[in-house]
Amino acid sequence: MMYAKSLIFAEGYRLLAAAFRYPEVEELREILTEVLEPGQESAEEIRQLAAPLLEQLDDELAAEYNRLFAQSVAVSPHERAYTGGDLGPGLGQLAALYEAFGLRSGGTEGEVPDHIGAELEFAAFLCLKEAMYSDDPKEESREALAIVCAARKTFMQEHLGRWICAFADRLHDSAQHPYYVRLAELVRDWVKTDFAAQRWELPLAGRHLPVIGPDLSTEVEDDSEPMTCPSAPHEEAAIPLATLLPA
Known about the structure:
By secondary structure, this protein is an all-alpha fold. The chain has a single domain (2-244), classed as TorD-like (Orthogonal Bundle). 61% of the residues lie in helices and 2% in strands. The chain has ten helices and two strands, in the order ααααααβαααβα. Strands 1-2 form a two-stranded parallel sheet. It is globular and about 50 Å long.
């Protein structure tokens, strides 16, 4: 049961992360169309994410993306703009969480750790790890699952969940293109659904929670590629977060 739910949330976060990238329309159309094709075993929840976005794709998306996020920055895509926290500690904790799993933010678009795209990618990654370990009965996998679940709860409660509603509301009100209006609704509802499924309390907007990271001290071996266990030896170069998940 946990395996299936984790995979669904992983796929949903992956699609949402792709939807927030700079819009290469044909590439985005291909990503969204793939999960809707007959014969695909996509969950209904994923189809309900992809279908409304696919309907709104057009050649005006790039101009709207630039207006919203790049030029006039009508809507900041960064966590720090909504939580009011000290930039250094907040980014430091995020970077530490990424690096604990052998990841780094940046990728082709050079996002900093608190960019909406980077955080959605990381949420997808953690859900994939959760699914991988929940399907393995070995003791070391159960220990690894506990580590991943603790990291995911920390990340969702102290980062993505703290600002997603404020961000989505601002995007919804500022967007002049129906694609981004719908995307704002979808990302907000997806994160809220995840919190409800996990029985977590959605943090109040702007509320500062204690900076307590998950216990990453347990020795767990993980030979999967390219994912790495939190306590496995770090590779010389961390994997770019934006290139880890399949497009």
